[in-house]
Amino acid sequence: MKPALLLILAIATSSVSLFAEESRPLVGAIRWDAWYSDKGPVKEVERSLGPPKYHFRLPWFARLQGGDKVSINGDSEAIMQQELDYAATAGLDYWAFLDYGPGSDMTHAFNRFLAAADKRGLRFCFIEEGASIDGRGPKDWPRVIEHFKNPHYLRVLDGRPLLCVFARPKKYGREVFDQLRQLTVAAGMPEPYLVLMGWNPAEEREKLGFDAVSEYAAVGTGYSPKPVAYEQLVSKHVAQELWQKWEHDRTPCITFATAGWDTRPRQERPPSWCRWIKAEPDLTPPEQQKPLRDAVTAKPEQIAKHVLEAVHWTRSHRDLNPANCVLIYGWNENDEGGWLIPTLGDDGKPDDSRIQALGKVLRSH
Prior knowledge:
This protein is an alpha/beta fold. The chain has a domain at about 30-120 and about 215-360. About 40% of the residues lie in helices and about 15% in strands. The chain has helices spanning about 5-20, 40-50, 75-90, 110-115, 130-135, 140-150, 175-185, 200-210, 230-250, 265-270, 300-315, 355-360, and strands at about 25-30, 65, 70, 95-100, 125-130, 155, 160-165, 195, 210-215, 255-260, 325-330, 330-335, 340, 345, 350. Strands 1, 4, 5, 6, 7, 8, 9, 10 and 11 form a 9-stranded mixed sheet that branches. Strands 2-3 form a two-stranded antiparallel ribbon. α3 packs across α12 (about 355-360). It is globular. Mean pLDDT is about 95; it is low at about 1-20.
């Protein structure tokens, strides 16, 4: 072979290799879908976000009812299509849906997603909760595996369906996940790529035979009327306590990023599932309340900068994150403090500033 041709082949090969190394990680966001019904959990989160000082957090399809009353129900084909458009504009590749199973009010948005004719290229994966696995048991695996077969289900590393588990089950151990692996392979797919979320998941990962760890949320000082500033949340509770620790301990991971943590609406008006919280109501009359935006509330450019740092961290730690994924808390945890979904602007129109800021950095990297 002529030297010139050898040189061309070498350049082409190196270019392909460089492109593979520099390809942007898949970036997704967690969905907690309590905003898509007229009953059940949505009535409680309407109450938590009812005070006018929290109205800037409302999903863009919410409606003000006067005083401290709001209505939130996004269960429509048109709203899901608009959400898909927003997610595509933000540069997201997938949504991670909390899986509540058939018949739950929390699954309406997921069903709308499945039915959407144009998913704008978005894929999906599931987050199973340990308590739900305890309740439904391994008899539920065939249903989950049917979703693995969906062409829109997120697969990594040559076709492995990615499945997250938040907080290990108490009733079951490794055997229930071994059964999931066996059933998935028997269905003609590679083993699922299992990711453990929760508090100190690295300690449980190997016991359960999981492939990697991640987090659901960075909580700072936890449920508190005095949450930490966003900059401290990302610099200390994400970069130091997660990324640096994973690097030091050589822990396989899915890179976690966050849009915030601020549970003050739930501190004032706790939902029923937050039984440990003692209500601390604000007695300020609704007409005198001002939007509670402070250093805890992430600015759009802060979120974009943090997610870009997560992308860079993932690129430089592919040995720890072979799945090449970033997962953001969250798409729509509005009352708990982490959201990307456009909110109800002061002018009554969607405020998509977080979407635009994130899309600007993800589409250019």
